[in-house]
Amino acid sequence: MAEPTEDVTYRHEDWYAQELVDRHFVRCSFFHVDLTEAISQRAIFTECVFGNVAFNASRHTDSAFTRCTFKRCNLFEAEFTGCKLVGSSFDQCDLRPLRISGGDWSFVALPGADLRGVSITDVRMREVDLTGANLTDATVTGADLSGAQLHSSRLSGADLRGSDLTALDPTVVERAGAIVDAEQAIVLAQALGFQIR
Q1: 80 and 125 part of one domain
Q2: Are 16 and 37 in contact (CB under 8 A)?
Q3: What is the CATH number of the domain that holds 58?
Q4: What single-letter DSSP state applies at residue 4?
Q5: How many Cβ atoms are within 10 Å of 33's Cβ, its own excluded?
Q6: Secondary structure of residue 188 in the 3-state scheme
Q7: Which domain holds residue 172?
Q8: Domain-embedded: residue 132
Q9: Which long-range contacts (CB under 8 A, 24 or more apart) does 162-171 make?
Q10: Of 94, 126, 145, which closes a domain?
Q11: Could you name the domain of life of the organism this protein comes from (predicted)?
Q12: Omega cis (within 30) before 97
């Protein structure tokens, strides 16, 4: 791993298709940086700020964005594989279509996010804030959503099979057509006060 780059501000830079391998950024700010089709591998971003950054069609593998802030960023067709985003927040970002596979997105703030049709598989998302998020027709399978904030989220048509839904109150979400497995159905029935015998 390279020596960390600390407290640097990047503005209006063209990092199109850059390969960020084993790079480490600490408390850096990125404003209007073009990371379209960029690739990161084992890169670490700690407490960084991303404002109006284009992550379009970027690919991130085994990278970490911990306690980072994303504001008005475009993640159209971005992919995160085995990445750690613990404690990061997304505000007014374009997040679709987005593909997340594996990794740890616990304590991530995504309130009100438009996540229609995104793919989230086998991701740890403990205590993630999805308050008011729109997950219509999304795939959220094998995700650890324990302690998640899901109030007023829209789950219509979403595939939720294999995910931990113990934090889900079925009465405060839109759920028409959401797909669950038999084990989850029991958890949801119990949340509604039914006794399973």
Answers
A1: no
A2: yes
A3: 2.160.20.80
A4: P
A5: 23
A6: helix
A7: 108-197
A8: yes
A9: none
A10: 94
A11: Bacteria
A12: yes
Single residue among 66, 94, 122 that ends a domain in this structure: 94
pTM of the model: 0.95
Burial annotation 115-134 (CB, 10 A radius, 16+ → b, else e): bbbbbbbebbbbebbbbbbb
DSSP state of 122: S
Give the three-class secondary structure for 189.
helix
Contact 174, 181 (CB under 8 A): no
Residue 21 three-state SS: strand
Residue range 38-62, pLDDT digits in tens: 999 999 999 999 999 999 999 999 9
Span 68-94, pLDDT tens digits: 999 999 999 999 999 999 999 999 999
* First-last CA distance in the chain: 56
